[in-house]
Records
---
Amino acid sequence: MNRPHRSARHGQPPLAVVRGRRADAPLTLQPGQPTRDPGPERPGPGAESGRPARAPAGGAAGPLELLAERTDDLQRLKAEYDNYRKRVRRDRLAVREIAVANVLRGLLPVLDAVDRMREEEPLHGGLRAVAESLDAQLGALGLEGFAVAGDPFDPACHEAVGRVVPGTPDRPVCTAVLRRGYRVGRQLLRPAQVLVGEGAHQGQGSGPS
């Protein structure tokens, strides 16, 4: 005759043997649970076809979506950096042009003095060499002088200080240049002071009226 289990005497359920999922897992005794082998694990969805299971809708993005997002970020960052480089280069050129223009504007009285000396008599010796070197160096910086007798009068770059004939000519021209004008590229440093008259009066300049 089999003797009842000690735990059954006191109204407790009998102990059940529970095996873990792994074959080498130890056996455990838990009250009230039947002894059952869970068997092998079932493969998840997509395991039979060899394809990875897709992420659920609304979940984390897949590798391709993440790659496309990072690529867009890099392209946008590169475009912003290219625009920044262009803007910095443009600002540097603008600052350089302003600095050069300020230096050249300060040298215009020196050029006016050289022009007056040339009008009085031809330059010789060391004075001529200095004047030619000065013209060459300033020309290399982009300084350009303009206005000669016979040029059409342009109020944008010519300053009329007198008229040769009274009235307003139909086609005014610069009959005489009292002071040359200078520009650097498209920037006007100083307008030229001229006498205005008809084309037939070229070379008959008189003093300012």
Note: The two ends are 149 Å apart (CA to CA).
---
Amino acid sequence: MPHLDYRAFVNSCRDERGVGHHTLRAYAQDLRTFASFKRKHHLTDPLSKDDILAYHRHLRDELCAKPATIERRLVTLKSYFAWRADRNSALPSPFMGVRISIRIPRRLPRPIDRDTLKAILRTENEMNFALQSRPNSCVMQEVTILMIKLLIVTGLRIGELTNLKIRDVSTDASQMIVRGKGNKERMVFVPDEELQSAFRQYCIVRTKHGSLDSPLFLNAVGRRLRSQTFRKRLRVLSHRLGIAPHLTPHRFRHSAATLLIEEGTDIRMVQALLGHANLRTTEIYVRVSNHALKRALARADILNALKH
């Protein structure tokens, strides 16, 4: 095979494994980067272990890529060559016998603190007053706050929320079917009765104006609300409330996980809610829950206990 057939690989990941759009785009980008390296250095098949090691040095020393980026590019490339070898045994993977160690600094999540969350939710009261004078201009803000509340209590990824269809939400709006990474489905619950009521009213309105297969959340022109559009709304809200660093959907996901851990929810339940395949991914929220640690220490009151 004289060239890198990355399009066939990406299509195979989409059709056979149900890989999501964002991951497919990352695969294509990773393989285009290697294809450029291969052309520049006039590499031909069969590639060798030394070619892979040279590519690693290229990413690290010439492109100055971050460790996480280097790891992702190599993992994608390894998957591609395994896929190719499976279809053509005459082209073995050059990763055979390759051992590359990449140290990735573990970054702690940055949840939104409780006071900031309270300030965000208080904006709903401001909108209720404004509805009387500017009803149309406040509709989008109402929907934005509704979505924020859903992110806080469910820990959904923003793509999971914006990809919801009307039929994915139960009649009483207490639960919804969510499609996560790898197109895996999971059930997510909306526990708060007041939020359920607001969510139910919103869904009733959407059902009157769209089919069950219609997107649940719409933008200003009546099309499916894109994740990027919602991020822009959060930037505007951040600027208005003076929140820095600015709000992002994933910070609400971090907040949902951290708050649940702080309130004593079993970590495996948090894992199921977030749709994490590996418990290790969820365990990081135990480390950042300093609020819960402070409360536990206060309750224990060790010195006072020793006096008696």
Note: Residues 129-137 have pLDDT under 50 and may be disordered.
---
Amino acid sequence: MPSITDHPSTRRAIPAVPVLSLAAFRPAGKAPPSLLDAPALRHVTSGRIAIGMALRALGVGPGDTVLVPAYHSPSMVPPVHWRGARAVFYRVHPDTTADLDDIAAKLDPTVKAVMATHFFGIPQDLAPLRALCDRHGIGLVEDCAHCLFGTRGPVAVGSSGDYAIGSSMKFFPVYDGGCLVSHRHPLDVRLQGGGAGFEAKAALNTLEAAFAHGRLPVLRAALALPLRLKEALWNRVKARRGARADGTPADGAPAPSTLAPASSDSGFDFDPRWMDRRASLFARLVLRFAARARIVALRRRHYLQLEQALAGLPGCRPLFPALPDGACPWVFPVLFDDPEPVFAALQRARVPVVRFGAVLWPGVDASVCPNSADLGRRLIAFPCHQELSAAERTWLCAAIGDAARAGAAVAA
């Protein structure tokens, strides 16, 4: 996941994202509203690919403008440029909601679409923005990358936009996956497979991530020899091919990284070669059979546990005063008065964190949106996903508390 702060040589003490377990498939009651319930749905390899497909469906092209929140992931912008359009950034409020007045002030005849994001799994009220877009004949792309499940009152996520996009990798234990949905338009697009190499990598990487964190021990033992042989074979293939100065294999074959999109390997890049490619079969099977009600119930429970554990810690507060009914959180976002000493302590303790918005598109700074710059600097978010065990959650709460107190001591 590109938003997870990590170092390739450091294995995190607990899983930063959901990892596969048998518990993922246990029945858990009635499933809550989900982006996956939309009447028109396509499973693709990532949310950014879905953004590109949504902009294409809206007819965005050269000379057009797309309004994008100033608080964003850099992966949101390349799909706009792929369409030949220009990204213009609008302000957000301190609670991440869209600044409707700033959006209205930026409307001109070139604006073809607006992207609106439900940050961190908290559904926003998009009715006013939907009305503004309708008055001006502008398309609305509802960015649900953080918000695959949930409602705002009676309104399900994904139902306000002309098109909505999701990132199933943030909510399910899968290596790849996003979706493009619509409640308003048909999706007249045919998807193709990503190839045998992609399918194998998606399955193996999902399993290996689970094995690395102690899940599926019986399956791990059964696959130990095949996985060692796979690794040895792959290393031998890479050694035989060699590499050019640009990193591509000397024999002209596809580079190993092209077996999967950058979104699956912690990159922000947008590769048009993955347009109109469907999610892996392994990911689609997990999405079909995993217990969705369990995902929502446990994420809410873990979020509230973190909220309780952090209450009273010095120099910090949750971004949201309370977890709204109908919300399924992606992570637990916290604002720190002096974030850098805390972040350093968290890194030393190998705590997986998200620093969403810490890196914004070039040129987007406090002069464009002071709130976005402040959020990007001060916000550190922590995993609350459904696959955290009781012991892992206890350790996480203690590690965050230690880091917060250490950071406060430095500031003092």
Note: The first strand starts at residue 4 and ends at 5.
---
Amino acid sequence: MRNHTRDIYNKLASTYLNDVDEKSPYNAYYERPAMMTALPSQLEGKKVLDAGCAAGWYSSQLLFQGAEVTGVDISSEMVKAARRRLGEEATFLCHDLQETLPFQDDSFDVIVSSLTLHYLKDWTQPFQEFNRILKAGGTFLFSVHHPFMDYTRHQCEDYFKTQFLTETWNKPNITIDVSFYRRPMQSIINETTHYFNLDELIEPQPQEKMKEVKEKSYRYLMTSPHFLIVKATSKKLLENE
């Protein structure tokens, strides 16, 4: 699965850099606005890890808010695309989130992971590592496929089973099969709260602008939740507690 995800996103790197930001309503008017709203209000001078940085859109937004950004991605081509976007303004590394992260304990104030974790079958290793490198009181914010969406779209027979699914994506200049894991809501929450304190569970709604751009998708998202956002905090105690 690691090699599959790496190979798929190597092929998608050009699309993500040149087309996804403006041409994908699901990004521009749905997931990204909700994630940005959920971020801590003050990022000036904060150290932020963009875990699964893709072509660097989130890294660029975090930099704009004054953060010191490090991005990691399993795809070397995505890392190259992120570097083309931001140059030396951020640090980008090609690294597998299922392996030990090359950072010291308590290195980051915030960890952001957008639509990445559903490519990983087991969250134990990455969550242990995120917990290790996140400072006390730090924020862990991530988005994944909504379990209801995958369950209904793929007509799964067992909601409570973590399943390996494949679907075909039609992107600008490429049609490609992408595989990922669907897990039930209770697994998402329980695995998160094993390492972090749950702050907020967000089922994002599309912005009104999406109704103007792609009304069919807007109506669909208002009746069928597509993504799920989880905001959590490190369980480590602050020094004065």
Note: The chain has a mean pLDDT of 92.
